[in-house]
Amino acid sequence: MRKHLVWVMGLAAVVALASVGTAVAFTTTQLINGKVTPTKRPKAERVPATLFVDVSATTDNPNGVPSPATLGKVDFDKDGAFYQKGLATCDPSQFTSATTTQQAKSACGPSQIGTGSANILIPTGPSTAAINVSAVITVFNGKHKTIVLHTYNTLSGAQTLVGTLGPSTGGSKYGNTLTVQIPPLAGGTATIQEFNATIHKTFHFKGKKRSIFSAKCGADKKFNFQARFTFNDGTSSTGTAASKCKQKH
């Protein structure tokens, strides 16, 4: 696996060097899809729910590889809320590039709040097909209002992303924003083309049942999502989506 990784990294470096002085501006479009279940929820009271989010990017680049993202911000409707107090936390500093999915679960099992998958593209040339790598995502509750995203693939091993949850910065219809700094992949040329996760976790704290995520069905009868991404080429793109709901009386 190490030899394979070295080869891929070397190939990525060659591609990067070959493109110097011949850079062409391509458009990267950010997309998002999401769903909250159950779809039938009270109008005024938030109830435990399952949150699914899928972010992806498309491009007009002939090789099909979008510009690598450096910063991602995902906004969630104000009808939803995250509750982390009292839930076990995971320290991401214990993970290395060799930490497998099973090892991550063994180390931080009580704090696991979700699973998902990612699709990583590594360019091989200006107009040739990219190497497609699938990764397993395991989501953990982190300290200080963070979400730990452990990714693992059989080609390059593990990488850990840490997102920070805070009040929305994306507009009045949103309540929370998850901000994630995205490190360079494969020498800075590879990109996470798609990333999805399903989050659900109930637990007890001070004698009460809590949920990592809860939601209601407000007056507009939908749950809004927004993805705001900044890319390595200096551009940015915003995608929006909405999941319909029914009010439970």
Structure overview:
The protein is mainly β and 249 residues long. The protein has one domain. Helix content is 10%, strand content 52%. The protein is built from two helices and 18 strands. It has helices spanning 2-19, 101-108; strands at 28-37, 40-42, 47-48, 50-59, 69-77, 80-82, 112-122, 131-142, 146-153, 157-167, 174-181, 191-199, 202-205, 208-211, 213-215, 222-231, 236-244, 246-248. The strands form four sheets. It has an eleven-stranded antiparallel sheet with strand order 1-4-12-7-8-9-10-11-5-16-17, with helices on one face. A three-stranded antiparallel sheet has the order 3-15-6, with no helix packed on it. The longest helix is centred in the N-terminal third of the chain and has 18 residues, at 2-19. Residues 1-22 have low confidence and may be disordered.
Q: Kindly, what is the distance between the CA atoms of the first and last residues, rounded to a whole number of angstroms?
A: 56 Å
The share of residues in helices is: 10-25%
**Mean pLDDT value:** 90
Weakly predicted, low-confidence segments? 1-22
Strand order of the largest sheet: 1-4-12-7-8-9-10-11-5-16-17
Structural class: mainly beta
Q: Rg to the nearest angstrom?
A: 19 Å
What is the string of SSEs from the N terminus onward?
HEEEEEEHEEEEEEEEEEEE
Overall number of strands: 18
Principal-axis shape equals globular
